[in-house]
Amino acid sequence: MRQDGNEPAQRQRQRRFCILCLWFGALTHLSRDSRRVAWAGVLIVPLFWLLDTIIDVYLFGLGEAFHHGLFEMEPVELYMRILVSVLVVVFGLYAAVMLDRAERAGHALRESNAQLEKLKSELEHLVVADPLTGTYNRRKFHEVLDRAVSNATRHDHRFALLMIDVDHFKSINDTYGHQVGDEVLRSVCERIRGAVRSADQLFRVGGEEFCLLANVAGGEDIGPLAEKLRKVVADRSFPVVGNVTVSVGIANFREGDTQESIYARADDAMYEAKRKGRNCVVSSTV
């Protein structure tokens, strides 16, 4: 008989234990702010009981003493308090779950936006980058050159344009194949990028032709930089093909220059370097 009498009490304890496990299990999957909202719903319950007791005892005189109104209430009052308490706790948990979902959705949205920004940046880079060498392509070259000419004309920001052409590149392709030729172009670009200043910009404008846009401060002579680029290519041999050289033409910005005029002078200077035997630097005097 004792065992039968204890069964309902045991079941109630088991039920309460399961409810607590579900409660804490739900909290562990929520964010910190959401857990605070859920616990706020729990903490409101004793405050509600205290406030309701104060109103009943001191305002309506429904109890002989405060502890009577708090612990020795009518069954209907007890059930009403329990019902309101459960509703408050459930609402707090519901609000916490909604807040957690909103935070997760916001986090996912921020991650998606960051991914889109990254993809946008990569796409913009692909539009202006040469896929073989990683330098800027001809489209970007004309954009930057146009801006440089405008700044030089309006604000006297002087610059020089260096035309760099790999000597005998066709014979490299014919003798060793295009794959080796591509590797030569990549290596030439790496050497040039390692030798120029951070403010200078390198572009691939043709098959084996490159342009370097170099800032010129005051009356600076850009010739030593061009000679440095020539030497950094010629002084070390390349795998498979051996020695490779470049011819360099220089055109300094002059008053009244346009994109076409400064490019043409740099190109003419580069071909003059070819006529002089290649592997040399020629500055435009026109």
Walk me through this protein's architecture.
By secondary structure, the protein is of the alpha+beta class. It folds into 2 domains: 31-126; 138-283, Reverse transcriptase/Diguanylate cyclase domain (Alpha-Beta Plaits). It is built from 9 helices and 5 strands. It has helices spanning 2-28, 32-59, 66-71, 75-128, 138-155, 169-176, 178-195, 223-234, 259-275; strands at 159-166, 201-204, 209-215, 246-252, 281-283. Strands 2-3-1-4-5 form a 5-stranded mixed sheet, sandwiched between helices. A hairpin with a 4-residue loop joins strand 2 and strand 3 (209-215). Helix 2 runs antiparallel to helix 4 (75-128) and helix 6 (169-176) packs across helix 7 (178-195). The radius of gyration is 40 Å and the shape is rod-shaped. The mean pLDDT is 84.
By CATH, the architecture of the largest domain is named 2-Layer Sandwich
Count the beta strands: 5
Number of discrete domains: 2
For the record, what is the CATH homologous superfamily label of the largest domain? Reverse transcriptase/Diguanylate cyclase domain
Structural class: alpha+beta
**Total helix count?**
9
Q: Evaluate the radius of gyration.
A: 40 Å
Distance between the termini: 118 Å
